[in-house]
Design a protein that fits this description.
about 35% helix; alpha/beta; 10 helices; Rossmann fold; 7 strands; single chain
Length: about 325
């Protein structure tokens, strides 16, 4: 049997086991009802390194706008393999350009399923919208706070970006997620009006690059990617003079060092977030995460913009930001969570 066949069988087995485990633990779920059919949610979850009964912390990789989970994972799969932990990811609808209020449901399902399979807390690492989605999920689905140990958000669109602001209009439609990640969007205003930017007894770490060409501002008093209550790390503060792109932030050696450090100190709640003082002394001697081939990764990153642009050209576009659902305007009920 070839590698493709083995991966297909693994995906089917993971989906079946996840469904059984989720069914057994449905009573512990909280937050808004998932409106996406469970069959779609299950089909979107992929686990290239099986988390079933994991002996180490399982990981959830969350891709960014304009890419599938398959595409995002491909660029960094050698780093995850070198790290050696179980890992899952999600293929969000329309190349992760759909309404974030829909996409987040796929992540909620995925985190619950991976936790149920692994029988231990999950550490999440995401890029761009993939850094925003975990925070969104943990804000409105409180049961996830018992299932997640760490969140690392690389170049997250937490407070929106001013790059390209105003380029979406009734006469120039954009994908829903583009509208929602602009600075001042109604969805981000609703999320950022909640009382805690780092909900739950979870370790939050953010990593950002001052040379990010997509998400700005990244300096000054209110960096878009920083969160109150998190360990907020600037790549150039660790490796002065380094130029790291938006997409490149997720593959940067600083980002992965932060993730490894946070996972190693998991179980300590907010005190377990990454600390630069614990990073390997050679973190700046190589540009990318351990396990990644420098030439190949550089090539992938150079091609990524074209791939994302091609993907975005094929997706549905809307003339205005989708309305914020009532459930996301309210402060979540926090009792017993």
């Amino acid at each position: 049997m070839g590698a493709v066949g083995r991966r297909l069988i693994l995906s089917v087995c993971v989906a079946v086991l996840a469904g059984l485990a989720l069914g057994a633990s449905a009573a512990s779920a909280s937050g808004p009802r998932l409106t996406v059919p469970q069959s779609d949610l299950a089909a979107a979850l992929k686990c290239p390194i099986d988390p079933t009964n994991a002996s180490t912390t399982p990981l959830m990789f969350v891709t960014g706008t304009g890419a599938t989970g398959d595409q995002g994972y491909l660029i960094g799969q050698d780093a995850f393999k070198a790290y050696g932990h179980p890992v899952c990811y999600v293929n969000f609808p329309d190349f992760t350009t759909a309404d974030i209020q829909v996409s987040v449901q796929y992540l909620v399902y995925g985190l619950r399923a991976e936790f149920a399979l692994a029988h231990r807390k999950v550490a999440v690492i995401g890029i761009s919208q993939g850094g925003l989605l975990p925070r969104f999920a943990l804000t409105y689905w409180p049961d996830l706070r018992r299932k997640v140990s760490d969140v690392l958000a690389a170049a997250g669109t937490q407070h929106g970006t001013t790059v390209g602001l105003g380029s979406c209009s009734a006469s120039s439609p954009c994908p829903p997620a583009d509208w929602q990640q602009g600075a001042g969007s109604r969805l981000l205003r609703a999320l950022n009006s909640q009382p805690d930017e780092t909900p739950g007894n979870v370790s939050y770490t953010t990593v950002r690059s001052l040379t990010d060409e997509t998400v700005q501002p990244q300096s000054g008093k209110h960096p878009s990617s920083a969160l109150q209550g998190a360990s907020n790390i600037v790549i150039q503060s660790v490796c002065p003079g380094r130029t790291t792109s938006h997409i490149g932030t997720i593959r940067d050696s600083v980002t992965f060092a932060a993730f490894v450090d946070a996972v190693a100190h998991g179980g300590k709640g907010k005190r377990g977030a990454a600390r630069v003082s614990r990073f390997p002394p050679d973190v700046c001697s190589h540009p990318y995460a351990t396990g990644l081939n420098e030439a190949q990764t550089t090539l992938f990153l150079n091609l990524a913009g074209g791939v994302i642009g091609g993907n975005q050209s094929m997706v549905p576009k809307v003339p205005a930001e989708p309305p914020v659902r009532k459930v996301f305007k309210r402060v979540p009920h926090l009792k017993r969570h």
